[in-house]
Amino acid sequence: MSRATYATVAVVGAVALSTGLSACAGAGGAGGAGGGGGGSTDSINVLMVNNPQMVDLQKLAPEFTKESGIKVNFTVLPENDLRDKTSQEFSSQAGQYDVATLSNFEIPIYAKNSWVADLTSYTKSDTAFDQSDILEPMTKALSVDGKIYGEPFYGESSFLMYRKDVLAAKGVTMPAKPTWQQVADIAAKVDTPGGMRGICLRGQPGWGQLFAPLTTVVNTFGGTWFEKDWTPKVNGTEFKAATNFYVDLVKAHGEAGASQAGFTECLNNMTQGKTAMWYDATSAAGSLEASDSPVKGKIGYAPAPVVKTDSSGWLYTWAWAVEQKSAKKDAAWKFVSWASSKKYEELVGAQLGWSKVPAGKRASTYSNADYVKSAEAFATETKSAIESANPDNPGVQERPAPGIQFVDIPEFPDLGTKVSQYVSSAIAGQGSVDSALDQGQQLAETVAKSYQK
Amino acid sequence: MSSTTTVTARGATSGAPGGGRSTGAAPGAAMRRTGEWARRAPLLPALVLTVIVTQLPFVVTIVTSFISWNAYYPDRRHFAGLENFQTVVSDPDARKAILVSVTLTLSVVLVSLLLGLVSALLLDRKFLGRGIVRTLMITPFLVVPVAAALLWKHALYNPEYGLFDGLLKLVLGSNAPQVDWIGQYPFASVMFAIVWQWTPFMMLILLAGLQSRPLDVVEAARIDGASSWQIFRHMTLPHLRSYIELAGLLGTIYVVQNFDHVFTITSGGLGTANLPYYIYQTFYTAHDYGLASAAGVIVVVLTIAVATVALRTVFSLFKEENR
């Protein structure tokens, strides 16, 4: 065999490999529902996260089709995958989906790039939708320059959920406004080796997984990702103290397999009685208090634990946005306004139970007698957590960009995910938090450079 | 071009013995040429499509790798020269990913080759229900990779409800240690899940090799008093060599691309991010198309280098054997 032949075989192999690689990258992008855009207006494609409220929506969608004659094709993905897919879809303006669930992280960034449709005129002409009923922080978080780009499906903050019965059995009382040290002490007291663990905290890599709760802890410990002038502070004393505290707590009293546990895993653990406390999204309470939940009525709710700040809950909303490229904006708005309406909340209440209502977005929800009665365990706590969240000033110092559990810049998903991978390793007992954050600082410095110019 | 010349030449030679029909040679060749093309033409679209589908993305990737292109900043797109390549090479995460790719591929291929060899040897014997066992052994290879990875992550490794820890409890009692498999042994967790998928592939190729072995020679050796080990060492193994090499080469080409297992089992955490995962993250999370393309090009260049060396070794081994 000649030299040329070796090279040819090698090149053919390598090219096969490279196409294989692109094919595997494509696997994340392909396989959408119902094919591309265009076609008739009697069907729209919706891309959404697989949270329980969205799964309920999928069940009730035939009601919408009955009312409007519009068929809805759903593509439902876990949070991390959804983010990859939506950013891919909207940045390329592929037009495959008409509506997608985006959060208050994406919508301001996407709006600046004109990737999402301006919904202001719809909200003005559609009086039945009643935009003024949407909670003010939500409308504000989903608007840019006074134009509305998204409608919340549900809103959430974060708080501490705990088993009242378990704490009582151990003679422990939860303070009305716990500090993180008090929470750690309680976790140590209620932790039973081989049985129920003290607390569940996310450890799965991903900026929207591990770093959602962890950034709120960093904020209240006095740390920040960036200072006002974009100086990165990822390996600052406070950031390190907060992360060490979090990692130590989850290692000592957290769930088994913590480095791979996210929101869903903790929800399962809490529902199945495997953990006594859980610090996470307020929206989780609806699932915990559902009529078929084994822990219904056993859970108490306390504000997000603090150290140096008065409150430390996050502000987050899964909102509907319409892709700018969509050819079916009217049908898309019909769906969005239906899914975010008071009527839809009533439909969920009547058919699935009031505790499952996608709450936290409309003031009227909290004056609805049926809802308040069924969600009395967590309704007021949720509303006050949302109202006390301040995305513009969540820590002890001024910030260059809004956001509580994230920094609202396009670079954050990559930065947060990479640093979360290092921290997750530390949770698994591989490497230290300090070296993880030193690595994170270098990444943050690269990001800061383009903003400091 | 070259095929046309051959056709003409063949037409001319075949026309000659026909007995001096000087006029018949040229139209005959032309007709034959038209006939050949009539047969080939329908295949052309397929060829063009194949070239477009397989080679065009590659060319686009090379072009993109020289552009500074982040999807979040459509206005800042510009030609960047070698900047992307410099960034990738100086990125410690990328270097780590290269190392992980190499170790993961090598360990998966070696372990699954060994297990495949053992199971092929066992399956080569005659026993009751061999057909069923063979089918069962092949099944892991037929499972969709992402489903297999999910199965390992949840059904087997999970420390709360996974089978491995359940088995420990069953054997050692309720006080059995409950291992956090993925957290404590992330690399091995990913590796064994892939090994499980690839062992059947190795087994299939090696089994084919075993069954093509001339049994009369083995029998003769046995009559001459050779032990089973001696027969295996001096007859079976040399016969299997080319099959082992082929299985190893094909396995390597596919395992290097593994993405599903890393993505599903560890989300790229715990130091298990390999190159495909790194490229995925750069492309889908950071939306840095230029950087991701540069990383992709580097993978291809590295693979060409490795494959050339590997193929040369493999082919020289073939030659030695033929001597």
From TrEMBL, chain A:
> Pfam families, alphabetically?
SBP_bac_1
Instruction: Locate the coiled-coil region(s) and give their ranges.
Output: none
Q: Where are the transmembrane segments?
A: none
Keywords from the UniProt entry: Signal
Q: Signal peptide span per the entry?
A: 1-25
What PANTHER family does its record include? ARABINOSE-BINDING PROTEIN-RELATED, DIACETYLCHITOBIOSE BINDING PROTEIN DASA
Please report the name of this protein according to its UniProt entry.
Carbohydrate ABC transporter substrate-binding protein (CUT1 family)
UniProtKB/TrEMBL annotation, chain B:
ABC transmembrane type-1 domain segment(s): 98-310
Which cellular component appears as one GO term in the record? plasma membrane
| Keyword Metal-binding appears in the UniProt entry | no
User: Where are the annotated segments for Disordered?
Assistant: 1-31
Membrane topology listed for this record: Multi-pass membrane protein
Task: Report the Pfam families cross-referenced here.
Answer: BPD_transp_1 (PF00528)
Transmembrane stretches in the record are 41-67, 97-123, 135-152, 187-210, 291-315
Give its localization.
Answer: Cell membrane
Cross-referenced PROSITE patterns: ABC_TM1
Question: What GO terms in the biological process aspect are recorded for it?
Answer: transmembrane transport
Cross-referenced CDD domains, in alphabetical order? TM_PBP2
What keywords were assigned to this record?
A: Cell membrane, Membrane, Transmembrane, Transmembrane helix, Transport
Per the record, the major location class is membrane
Family (UniProt): Belongs to the binding-protein-dependent transport system permease family.
Q: What is this protein called?
A: Carbohydrate ABC transporter membrane protein 1 (CUT1 family)
Organism, scientific name: Lapillicoccus jejuensis
